[in-house]
Amino acid sequence: MHQLQTLADIIARHTESDGVFATEIPRLSLVRMSKRTEPMQGVQHPSLCLIAQGTKQVLLADEVFEYGPARHLIASADLPITGQVIEASPEEPYLSIKLDLDLSVLGAMMIEMPPAPETFTTAKTCGKAICLSRTDPQLLEAAVRLLRLLDTPDDIPFLAPLAEKELLYRLMRGDQAKKLHRMLMPESRLQQVNRAIAWIRQNYAKPFSVDRVAQEARMSTSSLHEHFKEVTAMSPLQYQKQLRLQEARRLILSEALDAASAAHRVGYDSPSQFSREYRRLFGAPPIQDVSRLKTEPASFAPASA
User: Fold this and answer.
1) InterPro entries attached here (predicted)?
2) Contacts of 249 (CB under 8 A, 6+ apart)
């Protein structure tokens, strides 16, 4: 599709080196990587990630999502993931966009839009909070229109909200429309799980019982276990562990904390348990892992997008 090449050209023009680049368009980031990267952990927020060139692999617990051009990823919850660019070169770098979803705009659109065609309301949708879909020409055209505004920055305050709304409209009429609707319905299972996720993210450093999380989500304990696992591919306690370890890694890397102090800060009482679980997730003990990140930063792509 010629729109893919146009999209790649715009991203390449506005990213002269490897990295993640915020843009003047609110919530829109551009990503460029010129080589295969190492796996990198992070939290994927509700967003649309669309690849124009190259291939990426995203791991959610034990599930693998691999996608490239003409496919896009929609995340409908805050999820600890592992991301890795697996196809890129200096001649044909990995190029993608990430648009954080504006839930207030989506909610207003859901109220204003006419009912979806029957083909969308009856279509099967994946139960995970991360799903892949084929990118149809209408969605690509909307993405190109939004990114073209980067070439005329004076137009962004006036036209970007309209272009973003068109892009969201295409998503709301795509094969993940049901998921986006469930994201916005106050008492949907997805929204209940999102309440549990939000509570765990606020309290991850403290011990808690699953019963307490279930109360916050307004679900029974058995229902929370079932639907939390369906959405995130992990249990609430596994989710908490992922958040703890990722935050500990950030503290060691950016605030120069030693491993024991970082472990205590995120809620670990046992340094040896922390070290074992850290190595299991990141593939190396804390000091060795952070040293590698500092000496080879270009080899580690951001997990999201």
Assistant:
1) Homeodomain-like_sf, HTH_AraC, Tscrpt_reg_HTH_AraC_N
2) 41, 262, 278, 282, 286, 289, 290
Distance CA 303, CA 305 (A): 7
Tokens of 243: 């958040």
Q: Which of 83, 256, 46 is nearest to 248 (CA)?
A: 256
Q: Looking at the domain that runs over 238-299, which CATH code has it been given?
A: 1.10.10.60
234-273 pLDDT tens trace: 999 999 999 999 999 999 999 999 999 999 999 999 999 9
| Domain range annotation of the chain | 2-184, 189-233, 238-299
How far is the C-alpha of 275 from the C-alpha of 231, rounded, in Å?
Answer: 28
Q: Is the CATH code 2.60.120.10 the one for domain 2-184?
A: yes
Q: Would you state the pLDDT for residue 304?
A: 77
